[in-house]
Specification:
Blueprint (H helix, E strand, L loop, with lengths): L2 H32 L4 H21 L2 H10 L5 H17 L5 E2 L6 E2 L13 E6 L4 E5 L4 E4 L5 E3 L8 E7 L2 E6 L4 E4 L6 E3 L7 E7 L2 E6 L4 E4 L6 E3 L7 E6 L4 E5 L3 E5 L6 E4 H4 L7 E9 L2 E8 L6 E6 L5 E3 L4 E2 L2 E2 L8 E7 L2 E6 L3 E5 L7 E4 L5 E7 L2 E6 L4 E5 L10 H9 L3 E4 L3 H6 L1 E2 L3 E2 L5 H8 L7 E5 L3 H12 L5 E6 L7 E2 L8
Parallel strand pairs: 32-34, 32-35, 35-36
Antiparallel strand pairs: 1-2, 3-4, 4-5, 5-6, 7-8, 8-9, 9-10, 11-12, 12-13, 13-14, 15-16, 16-17, 17-18, 19-20, 20-21, 21-22, 23-24, 25-26, 26-27, 27-28, 29-30, 30-31, 33-37
């Protein structure tokens, strides 16, 4: 290699090396200064410090000497070029981050290097009051109507989007490399500065503000979705999911850390596995969800591969695990593995989206759970809204069905007794003669042929929990179906009176409770 060629190669390396270093240094000092919101000072000092470091780096002759050494050995020329090329590509790829544009104040998303390896998928879905917004890999954002028509929204990035939320006309999607996209018109999503380059996995709303969480314990806060500030979460583990109700915010890590806040800014941390050491199976968490006053967490048991873990709490301190002893009248382990990805509440039951197209219905009864396989894709998220349940998953698969389609209507005697003691109604739909001979103590008698009239008179509240039984379970199933048509949602079929091992009574007494 001639001296001129060697000098040209060295010059190219210098320029590329400086460009890479400049990006790294600029991002570093940007994070340092913008952390404290000293924008003006950062814009002045960052270029000065960056140039100083770049000149110092350029002054070093180590790289030139390395080039010369490699190129002077004829047998290693090709190897030398390969090594130098690999180094340059590696340094360039390492800058796959969001770079602050000097003049616009906007974020230019740099695309991740491993997009081609990702399975194309919807990662999350939300309801905006009119339709459903689904987001996923390659920056895909689709609007799905209840009739299953799909509108592809204009792409704003090719980064993977991990979650989406819609509140009062503001739609926000978050994803890899700290990308935050905001739409005010329901269609045109635009990137805004998030103050982080960490991946964002989840977003929620809390008292008219927004909170997003992600890698390395990242939590960012915004009152309008456009201007974001960093919040100290107090942890370094990735925050996989965040949610909130009117009282408090809650977030979780895979390592069983539960973060709680009453204002969205000051956070306390509870380690579930340590707190319940020896009292409950240790878990790995995946998702947190809230419905009304309750919080629900999905995950898996660490010591039982493929076993889904589902916990609930009111205040984040006292947790109750929903036991899943049997599924589809089988021991639950016979149907493992089940990976619980996301959860929603369907009246008084839980609907859990799982891998491999599985949809798990969890009831208060530990032996009355139900598993349906509805597709051959991983189901990544779901939302229950407006009487419908919408599921999304891999390969941009989705489905929409009426709430209650996969509901479990069977109930065990033990659960029926517990529910009765808590205010549920037990209704005997046999003939008066059968009812007089033997009946469940405290049950109401409504013959099947009089159900439409008498049920409304005796139990006018259609939100009441009603448990039907008969001789063998056939008439009680018909009664259940009639009650559903009348608008009663929380109805169950106990089966036959022979399935009841508890107190019974005889005699001609009033059937009214």
């Amino acid at each position: 290699m001639t001296n001129n060629a060697r000098d040209n190669l060295s010059r190219i390396i210098d320029n590329l090396y400086i460009d890479v270093i400049l990006k790294h240094i600029y991002r570093f000092f940007e994070d340092v200064f913008l952390l404290n919101n000293i924008k003006t000072i950062s814009l002045i000092i960052i270029p000065i410090i960056s140039l100083f470091f770049c000149r110092a780096i350029k002054a070093k002759i180590m790289r030139r000497e390395l080039v010369c050494m490699i190129c002077k050995i004829p047998t290693l020329k090709k190897l030398g070029f390969l090594i130098l090329t690999a180094l340059l590509v590696t340094m360039t790829v390492s800058c796959d981050s969001q770079i602050l544009l000097k003049n616009t104040g906007k974020i230019q998303p740099m695309e991740p290097t491993d997009n081609s390896k990702q399975t194309e998928a919807y990662h999350a879905v939300c309801y905006d009051g009119n339709s459903y917004i689904a987001v996923g890999t390659n920056g895909r954002i689709d609007r799905i109507k209840s009739d299953k028509t799909v509108t592809n929204l204009p792409p704003a990035t090719t980064l993977s989007l991990n979650d989406v939320i819609s509140v009062n006309g503001t739609d926000i999607a978050v994803g890899d490399v700290g990308i935050v996209l905001v739409a005010k018109d329901g269609e045109n999503f635009k990137p805004v500065k998030s103050k982080t380059t960490k991946p964002l996995y989840s977003i929620t709303s809390f008292r008219e503000a927004f909170l997003a969480a992600g890698g390395g314990g990242t939590i960012i806060y915004s009152s309008d979705g456009k201007r974001w500030t960093k919040i100290d979460s107090g942890i370094k583990n990735d925050i996989l999911s965040i949610t909130a109700n009117e009282r408090m915010c809650m977030a979780i890590t895979r390592e069983s850390q539960i973060l709680m806040s009453n204002d969205g800014k000051e956070w306390s941390v509870l380690d579930y596995n340590k707190f319940y050491d020896g009292l409950a199976e240790p878990c790995l968490f995946r998702n947190v969800y809230t419905e009304g006053d309750m919080f629900f967490v999905t995950g898996e048991h660490m010591n039982i591969p493929g076993s889904p873990a589902i916990m609930s709490t009111y205040d984040g301190e006292l947790w109750i695990e929903h036991a899943i002893n049997m599924i589809n009248d089988k021991l639950s382990e016979e149907l493992f593995p089940i990976t619980a990805n996301a959860i929603a509440v369907d009246t008084d039951q839980l609907v859990v989206a799982c891998n491999d197209g599985k949809l798990l219905t969890v009831t208060d009864c530990s032996t009355c759970n139900k598993l349906d396989v509805i597709c051959d894709k991983n189901i990544n998220d779901l939302v229950a809204a407006n009487g419908l349940i919408v599921l999304v998953g891999d390969e941009y698969w989705f489905d929409i069905f009426q709430s209650g389609n996969y509901r479990q209507y069977s109930i065990s005697a033990a659960q029926a007794l517990e529910d009765y003691n808590n205010g549920a109604y037990i209704v005997d739909v046999r003939s008066y003669e059968d009812y007089s001979q033997l009946r469940i103590k405290g049950s109401i008698h409504i013959p099947l042929d009089k159900l439409e009239v008498e049920l409304e008179r005796l139990i006018p509240d259609r939100s009441s929990k009603i448990i039907f039984y008969c001789a063998k379970g056939v008439k009680s199933q018909t009664a259940l179906e009639k009650a559903l048509l009348m608008g009663y949602d929380r109805v169950y079929n106990l089966g036959g009176i022979d399935d009841w091992p508890y107190d019974t009574e005889t005699g001609n007494i009033s059937g009214d409770r």
